[in-house]
């Protein structure tokens, strides 16, 4: 008797956690601990941001450091020199500073609108709906999976995400840095260490606008400080010697203002037109694609679009980050998201290695034909490296069977004689699938593939 174990074709299909791991963690682990995206969490899942957050820390140091120097040197000068109204300078700067940090942290530490990945059952159902027979052929690359919906008379395409196994809603896109699909995806901003999407775009816009005002305010106060000191001392160099840090603050703010004003102006345009950065770059609603093309998500006026972004309701998060892990709700995930397929050779992408561990499949049964491990009661012939061969799935598919003159002998029937290159069909054998039905009802699978010559059959 032969025991066969099957494994799916190695494609970009993500794997999932084993049942044993889920059972062990079901009473203690929370969902943020097994989150499949490339994010990191703090405070028991309350804070969510990208793993690559080095530039975000640099942003915090730059803002906090510049403001501290401003409070220590420039604000103290105005308070000591003009006690009647000098307190207004640190008061206004302090309010702006608090507002900038609050909007920055809200943008960086919140869920930008991540769409949960499908569960294994949902992914399997979607795969069955969009499965095409030609996907079993070697070197086959499936066409883009797209669905179309009509919104305000405008056709909008819903693209299928191969990583999350979902049809993305309108305006959503997959972030390659965080490896998540995000609602109303704008862009991934390394300066804030997070994606900018539906749930945090408002705070991102307020952050860049308030930071622009803060830079202008500090720059104006520092220049005024240097001018007043120059008038008191009579020489500009003496004023710099008395307050050398002021020139550093002025240079930082001067070079930051230009980029901040440009960025703020661009996002003001996007907000007024009801677009995102991703849509504007791709020209999703540009009239160049079609004369009757328009933005179905616009409110019809600049004021309406601005009110929707700044004053609209706050959308709830779709992620239950602090909930406990439930086996039935475990999303499809990969051990290394989005990297497994690209790190494989073309031969590995379209073939099955017998050493590949079996996992829950989301592919139809006609694409799951691949022999993996075999055991037999009778002493068998020693095949060299029989656990290392790679079987092309097209050779095992019933739609593209292997020619008869390339079929190796079946275990237990090595002595069968036949003319060179031709083997007589045995009782119970299905030549198309390479399976042999024994008299006791068990099935023996063809174990290996090699060129068959005279004397081999």
UniProtKB/TrEMBL annotation:
Which Gene Ontology molecular-function terms are recorded? protein-cysteine S-palmitoyltransferase activity
Catalytic reaction equation(s): L-cysteinyl-[protein] + hexadecanoyl-CoA = S-hexadecanoyl-L-cysteinyl-[protein] + CoA
Q: Which of the seven top EC classes does this enzyme belong to? A: transferase
Q: What family is this?
A: Belongs to the DHHC palmitoyltransferase family.
The record places domain Palmitoyltransferase DHHC at: 157-282
Q: Example GO biological process term? A: protein targeting to membrane
PANTHER family the record matches: PALMITOYLTRANSFERASE APP (PTHR22883:SF43), ZINC FINGER DHHC DOMAIN CONTAINING PROTEIN (PTHR22883)
Q: Which GO terms describe its cellular component?
A: endoplasmic reticulum; Golgi apparatus
Region of interest (Disordered), residue spans: 394-439
Which topology term describes how it sits in the membrane?
A: Multi-pass membrane protein
Q: Which residues form the signal peptide?
A: none
Protein name per its UniProtKB record = Palmitoyltransferase
- What does UniProt say about this protein's domains? The DHHC domain is required for palmitoyltransferase activity.
Q: What gene, per UniProt, encodes this protein?
A: LOC106165123
Q: What stretches pass through the bilayer?
A: 55-73, 85-105, 203-227, 247-266
Query: Which keywords does UniProt give here?
Result: Acyltransferase, Lipoprotein, Membrane, Palmitate, Transferase, Transmembrane, Transmembrane helix
Instruction: Check the record and name the PROSITE patterns matching this protein.
Output: DHHC (PS50216)
The listed locations are: Endomembrane system
* Entry EC number(s): 2.3.1.225
**Taxonomically, which superkingdom?**
Eukaryota
- Species: Lingula anatina
Which is a Pfam family this sequence falls into?
DHHC
